[in-house]
C-alpha cells in the first residue's frame, strides 16, 4: 500500500510496561489482515521534567516555536526549488535530513545529544532551537536578496538580448561595417520595418527626406514580425527623416554605434553570468545543509512537545510510549476510528472525537477543535510542494 506524506505522532500511557502499549497499538492497526499504518517507536531520551507549572507555560511557547520552525523549513525548501530552476522537479530528492530521506529520518528518529544536551532544562533546549533557526532565517533573507538581485539584473539583460526588434538591445545584432563612422556630415540609422511592409520600405526610404544616400539600406536582422534595416543620410535631416518614417509606420530606433559600449554590454552579461554560476553551487549546498538543520530541529520540537504534553496529560512519574504512525493512503478514517476504540478509556470528559467550541485548552490532543484522548501531533513532510 502507498503511504501518505503525513505522520501521526501520538503517545499513550504505559500499561504494565510501555512495551505492552507499543505491542497493543501494532496489533490493533492491522484490521482484518490489512495494515492501516506503518508504525515506529518514537525514541525519546530522559528529558528533564521540571515543575508542572513550567511545563504548562512551556506548552504554549512550544506551539509557537513549532509553527515558526516549520515555516522557516518551508521557506528553505521553496527557495531551493526556485534556485534549482529547471531542476525543480528533482526538489524532493534534494531534501534530506542528516543525509537520509525524510521518511527514514522520521521512522528512525534519534535525539541529537550533541546539539541539544538533555541535562539542560527543556526551556533552554527550546531557546537553543529558536536561536539556531532565527539565525538561519536571517541568513536566508540576506543570501536570497543578493542572489535574486543578481539573477534579476541578468534576466533583464537577457530579455533585452532577445524578443522583438522594437525593444531588444541592437548592439548584439550589428557590427562596425553596418555604419558610417567618423564622418562630419553623414550618419547611419537603424529602422524597424514590419515584414509585410518591406517592399514599401525599399521603394520609399530614399524619398522620405532629401539628402539620403542612394542604395544605402541593408537588411541586417529579422524576427517573427519585423526586420531591421540600415539607412545612411546627412545628419542635418535626421529629425525630418524620423518624422516621415514614423508617418509610414517605419520605426527608427535610437542607437549610436560604439564598439566600447557594445563590448561593455557583452562583458557585463558575461560577468553576471559568471557571478551567478559561481554563487549557484555554494548557495544550493547552503540551502540543503540548512534545510536539514531546520527539519531536524523541527522534529526535535515535536519530540519536546509530545514529551511535555504526555507528562501534563498522563502525570508523573513519566510512563508513556511515544509512537509514530505513518497512515497508508485512504486508511486515515479507519485508523482514527481504531485509535478512538483503543484509547477511549483515557477520555474522562466524554467528548472524544467531538467538535468543541469552548473551555478546552488541551494542546497536543486538541487539533482543529477536535479532541482526542491521546496526545496527537500531525507531521506533514511534503516540503517539495508549495505551501
From TrEMBL:
GO terms for cellular component: lysosomal membrane; vacuolar proton-transporting V-type ATPase, V1 domain. Signal peptide: none annotated. Keywords: Hydrogen ion transport, Ion transport, Transport. One of its GO terms (molecular function) is proton-transporting ATPase activity, rotational mechanism. CDD domains: V-ATPase_C (cd14785). Subunit of the V1 complex of vacuolar(H+)-ATPase (V-ATPase), a multisubunit enzyme composed of a peripheral complex (V1) that hydrolyzes ATP and a membrane integral complex (V0) that translocates protons. V-ATPase is responsible for acidifying and maintaining the pH of intracellular compartments and in some cell types, is targeted to the plasma membrane, where it is responsible for acidifying the extracellular environment. Subunit C is necessary for the assembly of the catalytic sector of the enzyme and is likely to have a specific function in its catalytic activity. V-ATPase is a heteromultimeric enzyme made up of two complexes: the ATP-hydrolytic V1 complex and the proton translocation V0 complex. The V1 complex consists of three catalytic AB heterodimers that form a heterohexamer, three peripheral stalks each consisting of EG heterodimers, one central rotor including subunits D and F, and the regulatory subunits C and H. The proton translocation complex V0 consists of the proton transport subunit a, a ring of proteolipid subunits c9c'', rotary subunit d, subunits e and f, and two accessory subunits. Belongs to the V-ATPase C subunit family. This is V-type proton ATPase subunit C. It comes from Stichopus japonicus.
Amino acid at each position: 500500500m502507498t503511504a501518505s506524506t503525513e505522520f501521526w505522532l501520538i503517545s499513550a500511557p504505559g500499561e504494565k510496561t510501555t512495551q505492552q502499549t507499543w505491542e497493543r497499538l501494532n496489533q490493533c492497526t492491522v484490521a482484518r489482515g490489512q495494515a492501516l499504518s506503518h508504525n515506529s517507536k518514537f525514541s525519546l531520551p530522559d528529558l528533564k521534567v521540571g515543575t508542572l507549572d513550567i511545563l504548562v507555560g512551556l506548552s504554549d511557547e512550544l506551539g509557537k516555536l513549532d509553527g515558526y520552525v516549520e515555516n522557516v523549513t518551508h521557506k528553505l525548501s521553496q527557495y531551493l526549488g526556485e534556485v534549482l530552476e529547471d531542476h525543480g522537479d528533482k526538489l524532493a530528492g534534494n531534501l534530506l535530513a542528516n543525509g537520509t530521506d525524510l521518511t527514514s529520518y522520521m521512522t528512525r528518529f534519534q535525539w541529537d545529544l550533541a546539539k541539544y544536551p538533555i541535562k539542560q532544562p527543556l526551556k533552554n533546549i527550546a531557546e537553543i532551537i529558536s536561536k539556531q533557526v532565527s539565525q538561519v532565517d536571517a541568513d536566508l533573507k540576506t543570501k536570497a536578496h543578493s542572489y535574486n538581485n543578481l539573477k534579476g539584473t541578468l534576466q533583464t539583460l537577457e530579455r533585452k538580448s532577445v524578443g522583438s526588434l522594437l525593444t531588444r538591445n541592437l548592439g548584439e545584432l550589428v557590427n562596425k561595417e553596418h555604419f558610417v563612422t567618423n564622418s562630419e556630415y553623414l550618419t547611419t540609422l537603424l529602422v524597424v520595418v514590419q515584414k509585410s511592409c518591406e517592399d514599401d520600405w525599399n521603394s520609399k526610404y530614399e524619398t522620405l527626406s532629401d539628402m539620403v544616400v542612394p542604395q544605402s539600406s541593408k537588411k541586417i536582422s529579422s524576427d517573427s514580425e519585423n526586420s531591421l534595416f540600415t539607412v545612411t543620410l546627412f545628419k542635418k535631416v535626421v529629425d525630418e527623416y524620423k518624422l516621415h518614417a514614423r508617418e509610414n509606420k517605419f520605426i527608427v530606433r535610437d542607437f549610436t554605434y560604439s564598439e566600447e559600449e557594445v563590448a561593455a554590454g557583452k562583458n557585463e552579461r558575461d560577468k553576471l553570468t559568471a557571478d551567478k554560476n559561481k554563487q549557484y553551487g555554494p548557495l544550493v549546498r547552503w540551502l540543503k545543509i540548512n534545510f536539514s538543520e531546520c527539519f531536524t530541529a523541527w522534529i526535535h520540537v515535536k519530540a519536546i512537545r509530545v514529551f511535555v504534553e504526555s507528562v501534563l496529560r498522563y502525570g508523573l512519574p513519566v510512563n508513556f510510549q511515544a509512537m509514530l504512525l505513518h497512515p497508508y493512503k485512504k486508511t486515515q478514517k479507519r485508523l482514527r476510528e481504531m485509535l478512538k476504540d483503543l484509547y477511549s478509556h483515557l477520555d474522562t470528559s466524554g467528548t472524544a472525537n467531538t467538535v468543541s467550541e469552548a473551555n478546552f485548552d488541551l494542546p497536543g490532543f486538541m487539533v482543529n477543535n477536535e479532541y482526542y484522548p491521546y496526545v496527537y501531533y500531525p507531521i506533514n513532510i511534503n516540503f517539495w510542494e508549495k505551501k
